[in-house]
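Readers of this paper often ask what the protein records in our data store actually look like. The remainder of this section carries one protein's record, kept here as part of the documentation.

:::
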Amino acid sequence: MSERVFRVWRGSGDGGLTEYEVEANEGEVVLDILLRLQATQVPDLAVRWNCKAGKCGSCSVEINGMPRLSCMTRMSIFEPDEVITVVPLQTFPVVRDLVCDVSFNYDKAREIPSFTPSPDTAPGDFRMQQEDVERGQEFRKCIECFLCNDVCHVIRDHEENKEHFSGPRYLMRVAELEMHPWDTADRRKIAQEEFGMGYCNITKCCTEVCPENIQITDNSLIPLKERVADRKYDPLVWLGRTIGRRPTDTPIVPNTRRPADAGTIIGKEEDEEG
């Protein structure tokens, strides 16, 4: 057991750091120390947490300048004499102490049109190749800790962008649905015009802080950008839309072949470019 120095944010948005000395044991995580601090010295310290297993995402804070889950940040990663500074997520309004108002994220989630299969598809027809299943499963590992949205400079440094930019968490959700072989909605247009895909400059900061190690940038944001660019700028795609069977602002009709028989090419794209 040793004494560690913690500097913890107290108050609301106009608060500040308060320094405490608190006991720390071998093998503990930052959340353990915060809860001990709450139990022994600061009973009114506001800390949000739930599972203490890295699966609920509720204990998100910034520790020594890095967005982290406090329940998954081991004390052993810090030097023995290092001062540990814990502040709330700086991208979102502070309710009190280490608790933020993250309702912005849920507002953006509600704006995304849900999974839209063809009404002519029977339940038994929803067959997918394993490759398509695994692509979506990676994105579904998200625990909605919102560390990616917190670190994204488009939201963090430019308040005016919040209305027009959903952040990496929900652009990833748009990408998941766009890549789904049985989803019939064309989500490329809304990704660009409603969710601000163009603001993202793929710095990979979102990927670096993801506690589930989801390759947000490489596997969702970049492929979604490519699809958006193909739709808007590729001359062959433009020609296909011009002489094709449908206008650009109507839902895409799903491929008549089942994905299990159609190779690994997603039906929506093959149908449009064919």
About this structure: Residues 246-274 have pLDDT under 50 and may be disordered. The beta strands are 2-10, 16-24, 60-63, 66-69, 84-87, 94-96, 99-100.
